[in-house]
Amino acid sequence: MSPSSNGPSGLSLAAQLQNLISATQIIAEEINEELGARFVQVTFPPRNATGLIDETIFEMLDNADAGIFDMSGPVIATGGAPVHGRVSPNVMYELTWLHALGTPTIPVIPEEQNSEFYLSQLYARPVPDYTVDTLVGMLRTQIRYLVHGDSDNPAADPHRNPISKFYNLSIVDIASSNGLATGYYHNFLRYVLDTRDSPFLRYPNADFAVELSRLVIFRPETIGEVEGMNARLNNELGRRGAPPVETLLFEAPLHSRKLTLKHVGSSLIDIPTPISSLAHSPRYRKARRIIPRSPFGDSSEGSELRKRKDKLEKSMIDSFFRVMDYLLEEPGLDGSRIHVRTIDEFLAETA
């Protein structure tokens, strides 16, 4: 689509996009002033962009916390009433890419333009025109919701889209975390939480001298923390004079071997070691490689790169636990036994 094509507002599509950028920047400045920090940053494609979805565009999409899209098509003169053309395929591709990533989006569409096909399944923000003042007024609430998380209209939640609605997770969450969390569930959780027979139902007998009350799953702060969690837990328990980590064997029905379980007092405990494998995922490895190559060092730009990596790392850990929670909805499991804690939280409880 040519940037000089006219949108429904009468402005060129390029002018509409520029007004949308300006409106977003105004709202971002308002929020940053309120918070006293540069919390919201607005990025947009280069003005000389060729229309190709190149590496620069992919990096922008991958790093974005949210995306705002102009979904208007060009007005086509037919000799009669003007006909609204369809949205650029590039824009639709970029929109659904963010949906697959699980990134919240705000599609903007002219009031007089009908939403078709995939767009008809979204909450698109209808606007009467593309002046900067109008766009600021129409977008302020949703952008503030992205920052503050409060909204009176759940249907307008920018996180909602047809992909996440169908799977209850983004596709990237499924791809990066589903295999690890599913393996953790099938190899461990479903046996120790089975309502028919589990470690919680075996007391008292020769192997279970302690009545277990809960399963504490330790949540790491970072992916790299996982490997050292076991040593840290043992050291901290010993230093505090708390009950030590003890082991017991559980012969679960239908399992090919006995499970070696660990507990501290009445708490069955487990470190989800599969999370450490997330360090080998392509997105994480790419984010980690960018930082040493960055020429910015400890500058604000270098700090921003590290923040992006940390944010990705946190989201991957979040995704693992979301998939785990989803799998625990299976019937026949006692998910109420699970308590997710950091090591510090657990130590505070056992002090």
Automatic annotation (TrEMBL):
Q: Which family does it belong to?
A: In the C-terminal section; belongs to the bacterial STING family.
Q: Which UniProt keywords apply?
A: Antiviral defense, Nucleotide-binding
Please name the Pfam families in this protein's record.
prok_STING
What are the protein's GO molecular function terms? Answer: nucleotide binding
- Kindly list the biological process annotations in GO that this record carries: defense response to virus
Query: Which residue range or ranges hold the Prokaryotic STING domain?
Result: 177-323
Q: Which organism is it from?
A: Hoeflea marina
Query: What is the protein name stated in its UniProt record?
Result: Prokaryotic STING domain-containing protein
